[in-house]
Amino acid sequence: MLEQKLKSPKFFKSISIVKFLPLILLAIALFNSYFIVIEGHVGVVKRFGEAKGQENPGLHFKIPFIETVEMIEVRTRKNAEKMASSTKEQMPVTIEVSVNWTVNKEAALDLFKRYGGLTQFEQRILDPRFRSATKDTIPQFEAEQLIQDRASAIQGIEHRLAEEMEGFPVVVDNIQIENIILPQKYINSIEIKQTEKNLAAAEEHKLERQRLEALRAVNTADAKAKGILKIAEAEAQSILLKGKAEAQAIDAKAKALKNNPLIVKLTEAQAWDGKLPTTMMGEGVMPIMDIRDKSESN
Fold first, then answer.
1. 108, 163, 254, 270: least surrounded by Cβ within 10 Å?
2. Cα gap 277→111, rounded to integer Å
């Protein structure tokens, strides 16, 4: 019976497995003797579960079956929260906020030792403090302020969260208020109020335009009146200058006649049409005599 077992195929198969078992174990050991850390991560090397060190991106080696590697992402991560709060006037509001945070690369090992990884850090440290900072800041603002001036609310949350996260191996930045959900009644009242503001602004714009048009008409009339006045002044000045010139000419002519009587004779000569007089003054009963040629009269 022993001879039959030794000659059976199963026996030879088991011997073959035992023969190649060291090679299989060696291959498994070699496969587990290295690890690769991808970009944006660090590898935390654990020996029997205890964190011993961290490795940067690249190819690294470890002790097979004894050491394991935990990857810690050191790129910027984003956490979002949706929470209920209230405004300064005690109006219920739902806020959707987000925050970006990054693990300090050099402190990744310390973060793993203290908190056990990124997920545990988020759940135990970051998220509760982020919610607390948001809920403490929102009630400092009225609903209208939250809508019109989100930046101030964001700054308040950032300041409070920075105080809460001081001393932790992470960098927190770029907080955003993604959405503000207010009661529908308040939204309707805001729309009505905005409509009234728009109508008032339109009416004010209309009145301003009418005022400008009236002012333009007054300026135009004033300009025309000033133009007419300038023309009248110019005409009056022209007449005055013309009268002065004529008076000066008459005065000059009078002085010339006075100083030289021959100018009168010259003027008469210039005015004579070249014809002799046809009548002359007489004496007695015929004071006027006709001295025209009889032939001409005939």
1. 270
2. 143
d(CA 177, CA 147): 10
Measured distance CA(132)–CA(277) in Å, rounded: 133
Same domain? 99 vs 143:
yes
Whether 212 is in a domain gets the answer: yes
Query: d(Cα 211, Cα 204) in Å, to the nearest integer?
Result: 10
Element (H, E) at 41: strand 41-47
**pLDDT reported for residue 297:** 45
Report yes or no on 16 lying in a domain: yes
| pLDDT tens-place string over residues 142-182 | 888 888 889 999 999 999 999 999 989 999 989 999 999 98
Extract the runs of DSSP E, i.e. beta strands, from 104-140: none
Q: Are 46 and 69 in contact (CB under 8 A)?
A: yes
In whole angstroms, what is the distance from residue 194 CA to residue 145 CA? 14
Q: Of the candidates 177, 67, 180, 78, which has an alpha carbon nearest to the alpha carbon of residue 133?
A: 177
112, part of any domain: yes
Distances (CA, A) of 12 to 16, 22, 32, 57: 6, 17, 30, 47
Give, in degrees to the nearest 5, the angle at Cα 111 between 47 and 117. Answer: 70
Query: Do residues 50 and 82 share a domain?
Result: no
238 CB-side CA count, 13 A: 6
What range defines the domain where residue 228 resides? 190-232
| pLDDT, position 132 | 94
pLDDT for 17: 65
pLDDT > 90: percent of the chain: 38
35 within 8 A of 43, measured Cβ to Cβ: yes
Residue 135 has pLDDT above 60, yes or no: yes
CA atoms within 13 A on the CB side of 184: 0
Q: Compute the distance between CA of residue 256 and CA of residue 262 in angstroms, rounded to an integer.
A: 10
Domain membership of residue 111 (yes or no) is yes
Count of domains for the chain: 3
